[in-house]
Amino acid sequence: MESSRPGALPVREPRRRFVAPIVFGLIGAVVAVWITVAVATSRDPEETVEAYLSAIAEKDVDGALEFVSDVPYGDTAAFLTPDAISDDWWVVSVTEVGREYSSSARVKAVIAGPGGTAEGEFEVNEYDDEWTLWDPFVTVRFPASPVSYVRVNDKVVPKPADSNGFESYDLFPGIYRFYGSVPGVVDTQRTGAVAAFPSEDPDEILVVPSTLTPAKDTVERLRKAVDERIDECATFTTPAPYGDCPFATDGDIDTPDGKRVSDLHGLTWKVSTYPVVTMTDDRSQEFSPAFALSVTSPGSVALSGSGEDTDGNPTTFTVNCEIDLTGLRATVDARGEVELTPFAGSGDPNLGDFDTCRRDT
């Protein structure tokens, strides 16, 4: 239920069904997970939750984790750091609202920020003479996107090398904004503030960045990466260079005088002109979003070699071949480095269904 206070942050009460809201740019959901809390017997459940939240608000990560019995580690804990905690919220109230047993209490907490208030509920358990927080974290997932990093508030983390778009991260309760522009790399709108709080039904926040516009320096790095890929491909002496190369012949050549040459051998590729490319955010492929390459000035390569013409005579030839970049796309990391990735847009040159040299197909 949303707060009645004007401009309040979104608030969610516990529900009995799982919902995974996807966030495009502005987040319209509040996420929650059950929490269990830890404190010495000198603190009751309310004081435990208050101390835990106060430590988070003060960016005292070690102090907050002292109240947690099972601390996350590895990639999952990448955002349990001071940089990922915003400083524009504070604790308003902490109230015990019920007990199931003498050793298990439910505690409601209210926090406030520039946009209003939000509330959530914690489960606090006593074990071995101390109150302990169990799983007091909110789960957030970043599906695949054209950038190979994720950002939570001011914390930027590269996605794991084996990232498949299903990595989940733990966050402390609090107020969060995701993504946002990285100067000199990409421009994008940061998401609106979302209150991440515990709840009886653990929900997972799915965060997708708004439209990404590459910076000028990033486009220049793309062009350098494309030129380097073309140069590498031009070193091959085969009809179809390997390695997602943007030019190939299927084994036959049409010469300028109208003859078709086959049985090709002694081949060399030479770059005539490099293409001029730019890049645009492309989410058309659900499981492999990336930057699409847009050609503003086409490029070409020359293929020279020997073969047998249609009359059965040996011949030499040199033909111009197009550079076709529809089979490549790009991703960008937080430093602006560009990685070219294959995209099934124009066939597989190694299967013989990709030809940029034939004049008559």
UniProtKB/TrEMBL annotation:
Q: Which domain of life is it from?
A: Bacteria
The alphabetized UniProt keywords are: Membrane, Transmembrane, Transmembrane helix
Reply yes or no: does the keyword Transmembrane helix apply: yes
The residues that cross the membrane are: 18-40
Q: What is the protein named?
A: DUF4878 domain-containing protein
Source organism (scientific name): Actinophytocola algeriensis
